[in-house]
Predict the structure.
Amino acid sequence: MIDNPQTAAWHGKLNLVYAERQNSTQLIYNHHQAPLKVQRPFYPEDKTVCHSVILHTAGGVVGGDRLSSHFHLQPNTQALITTAAASKIYRSNNLQARQTIDIQIDAGACLELLPQETILFNGADYRQDLRVELATGASFLGWEITRFGRSARGEKFLQGKWRSHTEIWRQGVPLWIDRQFLPGNAEIFHSPHGLFGQPIVGSLIWLGHPVSAEIIAKARSSFTPHSRLVNGVEPTLNTHTSTSLSVKHSALSTQHLVGVTQLEHGLLCRYRGASTSEVRNWFTAVWQILRTSFLSRSICIPRVWQI
């Protein structure tokens, strides 16, 4: 695997507009600039939900890259956007890589933004900014799963920087603002107020409709741990209402940590652990609960996840 490809910086752009046409959600505008592009829309459910798969044709992100996307869902449209593969953020060449996503969701529309995992190589310097403008009656579900270091080969995120900034607004009122920063060093990697030795963090956010206490309870109980037994005892599952990774933890350093928070207009799920399949399975279960409760349909797993 290439550790730091020596290529010129990319300035990729993607602009997608969805509109309702004859009870069908259609991608009516698609403008892209390399290395970003989108596959032809397809409809594995029915014509009301348009599935779109974003491709990054360069294979990975290097220092100096600037990627910007704009998604606009016109009234009463439904779209699911995912990525064709995990995103790789290579070791920085002393320049920051940055991705910016701006989303406008009009009345009665719903966007499910479900990218695959982002992998930060040790030494990467990466910032991602997401801003969503929700109209009244619109809804948004999004998740991000980030792996710090290529842990399968024993790499830890001991150098570099990661920033994630999310803002979701409705008519000038902030519904959710989340700023995260993690510098790569041994102290933060092992600190209980940082990664606590775990290479993966994940966040799932649903906003647009109030969520009942029953749904919160279902979201918490839907987590199924896949971690091995520690000293012959399965680690206790902790749930919390904090929106920070700085939370109460067990003395068992191999333990995952999850939490579900009820928001005024939705819910937030957090994960810190060591298994991509563990967090994705949980987020998928929560996605199923939310889809059934608010969209009156079951989940439809994107086919690219199964490749």
